[in-house]
Prior knowledge:
The chain is mostly helical and 119 residues long. It has helices spanning 11-29, 34-39, 61-76, 92-104, 110-117.
Amino acid sequence: MEIRRPLPIGFWKGTSLALALDLIAAALSGGATTRRIGLEEGELEASQVFITIDLSSFPDRSQIEEEIAASLAQIKDSKREDPAVPIRFPGEKRLSLRKENLELGIPVDERIWNEICSL
């Protein structure tokens, strides 16, 4: 039976990559692994890993971009649990919100804004 609903991505490769990045981040930063963060109150000392890849350094950038676009489109076209809720990728909502805030300004609760102005 084909339902075309997206499942969590990763399985053993994704889980292994997440574990490796967690351990590398903790080792390089001296911060906590996710195991330790879960044991302590307040989620302190979280470690982060940021990886940047320059696609222009690869021989066929256009082929890579086409493959990325096709893969993302396939996921976006998957059947949704709730048709009213869009399928989004990590950071996608944040980019949309950033664009909106640049166009319309950053929304601030009026009560908080009044407190700031009274300082």
